[in-house]
Design a protein that fits this description.
Largest interface: A-B, 22 and 28 residues
Number of domains of chain B: 1
Order of helices and strands of chain B: EEEHEEHEEHHHEHEHEHEEHH
Radius of gyration of chain A: 21 Å
Shape of chain B: globular
CATH superfamily of chain B: P-loop containing nucleotide triphosphate hydrolases
Strand order of the largest sheet of chain B: 6-9-10-3-11-12
Number of helices of chain A: 11
Structural class of chain A: alpha/beta
Strand content of chain B: 25-35%
Strand content of chain A: 35-45%
CATH topology of chain B: Rossmann fold
Number of strands of chain B: 12
Largest sheet of chain A: 10 strands, mixed
CATH architecture of chain B: 3-Layer(aba) Sandwich
Oligomer: heterodimer
């Protein structure tokens, strides 16, 4: 096995040798940010378990593999619009496809978007809309604090850009489908930027899929700025195969009176690491951060979250739940900062886990750092087995054991699904979770997905 | 209908039931009374199939079938219903979904098709009226946030939905005010037919003013020490359980 120094050196070589390809097509803003991030990456490297924040996720096996890296857009030899059709009934969305981290060249034109809304690739946005782009790109992510964020910033070429102008409400959710499709093992870097202006509203659903069964490492960073009084929802549905590694870092900045809800649902995947950072940077914000993970086999999910109450009078609710079977392992870290002036903060956090086997493992770590004195905060973590009394109660009414277990698991998970603010999506996720909890794989598209799970 | 012979039951090696004999015929109402710790709830749980208890000796046959090896759900489908002393709260499981699943499992067992959505809702409506339970409660998760009385009413509602042949009501009266007690008892009486039987387990006689038993048993220290008509309940109410203890040398 390669050691971490070799891995880091390989990236340094890639960066030096690929410099021209990397800077080609990217704006000056992107390239300047890139240069700086590369220096930061050289200092930090890929995080190892020595790093307290990565104590429970060993990234070395994920990185220690000869991946292909595409530093330019590769034409897709089929029409992805045909291959991928989301079969969520009633879920009427504006659908955008990305392939291996790049904005798909043959995306259908979204004709139903309100005027002024921009949905395009990051590369395109950096050239066409420099005023908006430069004001936000690289402003929220923190490459100085995390090697994989630095690596993403150094290698970032494309991803999704969404701009919702002041006062505009997008009724139909925007559905972003990230497709990994390759004929060889691949590392994808994706960089997204969502800008929601004052008093605007948007809901984004992100679906991560693998279309071929190669080994994938996907390192994505999403920056979101939510301006005063704006409302923003981000639903992330991670449904890949066991041979995939998802590194998903999200940085959300909220301005005053904004309202944000995120729900990160890890249905299937090999190794998943979600870094979820929220900065409440104006008074009277509301933030709802939810997540769920359903694991079996040797799957691993690590949700690392931080909610930073930088201003007074904000409310945050954070709730993650996990159901784990087999030899699955998971970690949850929930850090809440309440800064000195952030009086009247209300911050609530909990993490509940249901372990179905003796070998499943969860490490959960709530952490509150409170520097203000007039706050309401709570946190709690539970790890438990199926409630035998409840199981007996259901069985005593004639429901067989398997179904009774299913009902209880589903009930446990449903608390998180219930928070979804898009009704048809809620129903669909209910169905996916129900199938998943029955030990089946929830395929959620009609593609001829032939994954060997 | 039910025949219990020389039933011995232990939990964690400690013997709780020490040779119970009980015969119940269709249409009969039996009351089982006794002081705390006599083994009343253990008997109820064992009948329903709770696996915390170990049956070390004896047999239980229900409608001619040995039920000791049956899973709780199979006993339920055969027609045994346990009204829990402490009904369990199950957040996230809706009462409607719970009952629909249970009713359809029972129907499947009888070789019947599942109820259509509208037939099921009609059944719910009829049975809710029978036990005077509020729709607000049945629209919630199972027992979640219910008061003690509401939970007991919900037990009788479930009983009404499932129409068991043998209902075992474990201290259904405990914690009920007189109005709730009347409603619960009334529900039980309305469900009574010439073919089904009821075991009413209680500590106090009051419930038996409303549900009139054919036979009253006194369970003490793991054995049935006295069996008589309904007048025995009144005697117990008047004299307490001390004389039973004395008669049995404790």
């Amino acid at each position: 096995m390669a050691n971490i120094d070799t891995i880091n050196k390989d990236f340094a070589d890639l960066f030096e040798q690929g410099k021209e390809l990397l800077s080609n097509g990217s704006s000056d803003c992107m390239n300047k940010t890139r240069e700086k991030a590369f220096v930061q990456f050289q200092e930090l490297g890929v995080p190892t378990r020595v790093n307290e924040n990565y104590k429970y996720t060993n990234l070395i096996p994920a990185f220690d593999h000869p991946y292909n890296v595409n530093l330019r857009y590769m034409e897709v030899d089929v029409d992805l619009n045909d291959i991928f059709q989301c079969d969520v009934p009633e879920l009427d969305t504006n659908m955008v496809l990305l392939t291996n981290g790049w904005y798909y060249g043959n995306n259908k034109v979204l004709t139903e978007l309100p005027e002024g809304v921009i949905v395009c690739g990051v590369q395109e946005a950096s050239q066409k809309y420099p005023d908006i782009f430069n004001a936000h790109y690289g402003k929220y992510a923190k490459p100085e604090e995390d090697g994989i964020v630095a690596l993403n910033t150094a290698l970032a070429k494309d991803g999704l850009f969404i701009y919702v102008p002041k006062g505009v409400v997008i009724d139909k959710p925007i559905q972003v489908v990230n497709l990994l499709r390759s004929d060889r093992d691949l590392m994808a870097t994706q960089r997204n930027l969502f800008v929601i202006e004052e008093n605007a509203q948007a809901k984004i659903i992100v679906c991560d899929h693998t279309l071929t069964h190669h080994k994938y490492l996907s390192n994505s960073v999403t920056e979101v700025n939510v301006a005063p009084n704006a409302v923003f929802d981000l639903y992330t549905l991670q449904n890949q195969h066991l041979n995939s590694v998802i590194l998903n870092s999200i940085f959300i900045r909220q301005d005053k009176r904004s309202n944000v809800l995120t729900n990160t649902i890890s249905l299937y995947g090999g190794t998943i690491r979600n870094n979820h950072h929220v900065l409440l940077d104006g008074e009277h914000c509301e933030n709802n951060t939810y997540g769920m993970y359903l694991l079996d086999n040797k799957q691993h999910v690590d949700n690392f979250t931080s909610i930073d109450h930088a201003k007074p009078n904000c409310l945050s609710n954070e709730h993650f739940k996990g159901v784990m079977d087999g030899e699955a392992t998971a970690a949850f870290a929930g850090r809440i900062f309440v800064r000195r002036d952030a009086q009247k903060t209300e911050a609530y956090q909990s993490n509940n886990n249901l372990l179905l086997s003796d070998d499943a493992q969860i490490n959960t770590k709530p952490q509150l750092i409170i520097d203000a004195d007039d706050v309401k905060c709570s946190h709690g973590a539970t790890v438990g087995q199926m409630d035998e009394d409840a199981l007996f109660y259901l069985r005593a009414r004639g429901i067989d054991e398997k179904e009774a277990r299913q009902m209880l698991m589903f009930a446990f998970a449903h608390e998180i699904i219930e928070k979804i603010r898009v009704e048809p999506l809620k129903d669909r996720i209910d169905a996916l979770v129900d199938t998943r909890l029955r030990g089946e794989i929830s395929k959620c598209n009609t593609c001829a997905l032939a994954c060997k799970n | 209908m039910l025949s219990i012979k020389n039933l011995h039951v232990s939990i964690d090696g400690k013997e709780i039931l020490k040779g119970i004999n009980l015969e119940i015929k269709p249409g009969e109402v039996h009351a089982i009374m006794g002081p705390n710790g006599a083994g009343k709830s253990t008997l109820a749980s064992v009948l329903a199939g709770r696996d915390l208890y170990e049956v070390t000796e004896g047999e239980i046959t229900f409608q001619g079938k040995n039920i000791l090896d049956m899973a709780p759900e199979d006993r339920a489908k055969e027609g045994i219903f346990l009204g829990f002393q402490y009904p369990i709260e199950i957040p996230g499981v809706s009462t409607v979904n719970f009952m629909k699943t249970a009713v359809n499992e029972h129907r499947k067992h009888k070789g019947l098709d599942p109820l259509t959505a509208s037939d099921f809702l009609k059944l719910m409506r009829d049975k809710k009226a029978l036990v005077e339970i509020d729709s607000k409660l049945t629209n919630r998760s199972v027992n979640e946030g219910f008061s003690g009385g509401e939970k007991k009413k919900n037990e009788i509602f479930q009983m009404a939905m499932l129409e068991p042949k043998l209902a075992v009501l474990d201290e259904t009266d405990s914690g009920l005010d007189i109005d709730a007690l009347r409603i619960v008892a009334n529900g039980v009486n309305k469900l009574k037919t010439a073919d089904n039987s009821t075991i009413v387990i209680t500590h106090y006689q009051r419930l038996l003013d409303y549900i009139i038993p054919d036979v009253v048993h006194v369970l003490f220290d793991g054995r049935i020490v006295k069996t008589a008509g309904k007048e025995l309940a009144l005697e117990l109410e008047e004299k307490g359980y001390d004389w039973i203890k004395e008669e049995n040398g404790k």
